[in-house]
Amino acid sequence: MFYMEFMSSFILPVIAFSIFFYRPLFLDSYWFVLTFAVGQLLIGLAIGIDYRFRDPSSKNWIYKPLMNLISVVLLSWVLLPALWGFRKKGWLTR
């Protein structure tokens, strides 16, 4: 399970590029973007509801669907500069 999760983090930018750029621009397949976004929101909602049941006093569970979508769209791209600057010992700081 660890290795599947580890490798999926490297493949996610390729999948996100394919879904959000390649398919709409070259294949005219706009419905796939909507389907993927709704799927991510529903997965986030299920995880948020599970968290709400486990901790009834929680107030921030409602933001989990939005966080799921943000993590797929934005945070997956952070991996590329991190890998690019991995050999540098500065982490883009001086």
What does this structure look like?
- The protein has 94 residues and is mainly alpha-helical.
- It has helices at 2-26, 31-54, 64-73, 79-84.
- Helix 2 crosses helix 3 (64-73).
- It is globular.
- The mean pLDDT is 84.
Comma- or semicolon-separated keywords:
94 residues; mainly alpha; globular
- SSE order: HHHH
Apparent shape: globular
Q: What separation lies between the terminal Cα atoms?
A: 37 Å
- Put simply, the count of helices is 4
Biggest sheet layout = none
What is this structure's SSE topology?
Blueprint: H1 2-26, H2 31-54, H3 64-73, H4 79-84
Helix pairs in contact: 2-3
Summary of the model, kept short:
Helices cover 69% and strands 0% of the residues.
